[in-house]
Known about the structure:
By secondary structure, the chain is mostly helical. Helix content is 68%, strand content 1%. The protein has one domain (2-275). Strand 1 and strand 2 form a beta hairpin.
Amino acid sequence: xxxxxxTGAVSLLLALFGxxxxxRLLRRQGYGQPIRVEGPxxxxxKRGTPTMGGAAIVLAAVIxxxxxxxxxxxxxxxxxVLILMLxxxxxxxxxxxxxIKIFRQxxxxxxxxxxxxxxxxxxxxxxxxxxxHPDAVGLTPADAHLSFLRDFGPAIGTLPFLIWAVIIISGTxxxxxxxxxxxxxxxxxxxxxxAAYVLIGIWQERNDxxxxxxxxxxxIRDPLDLAVVAxxxxxxxxxxxxxxxxxxxIFMGDTGSLALGGVLAGLAICSKTALLLxxxxxxxxxxxxxxIIQVGFFKLTRRRVFKMAPLQHHFxxxxxxxxxxxxxxxxxxxxxxxxxxxxxxxEWLTVGR
Length: 353
């Protein structure tokens, strides 16, 4: 518990006081955000705002994780390190995408196929590694099962699991990326989901099968360190949100959104709650679905369902204030997290009877 608190506090302080340094550096280099021509006219005021600020989140989280473990003398775990590596790898893909946008001064960066390939490669490496590295009792960071609130059904095999993990990682990182369209929106929503994973990690540690054998016990490797990772990124997001809240002085860019999506996917896979992430991250699912509907319907009929996709921009085009959209979407995200945690706890009570 002490490691969680120290890690979260260090990450928060690093992001809070480090982000202004990154803002000044990015302004000096002229790394400002290009704006979509077809986007809401209100976004013109955002042109030139420093982007790639997600680097502050990644750096603060990694350093916070390291410092937290050094201060408390709590050993780092394979699960925690692999998730942070997944975050950094996807952050690098996003950084390249952001840099191309800035260099070309266009809202288009990497080709969609190239970006997806980068996500798939990073995700596949993670998927292979989490099936390795057994601990003293033979538990690996993940195993080749589908999972909702815990593993269910028979093992699906290494290759199907690899494909399944890549789908989760790519889907989650792209969903967070699509949600990152308004000041503070994706950051705040991610904070809520990360808070849920702090609680889930602590709960799984308290009911770990290596401590006592019971029907409701969890067979998870390193559950408490998963909570530490979630706290590290949570603290970094809090510090970053101080500067990213409306009106934002910096954007996270794809550097941050892909990295954050990767963390959520990694936590879901290693805590064996992969399908529960669909509920906890319900806002991301809604936003991504709106974009899929818009693109698919337009290709079929040459007509649009929404005035603009993703969904948050539809409400902008209807005249809603940006802060109103952000706050209401945060409320939706909070409800999804509450529902997910309720389902998680209800299952534990049911199994225990």
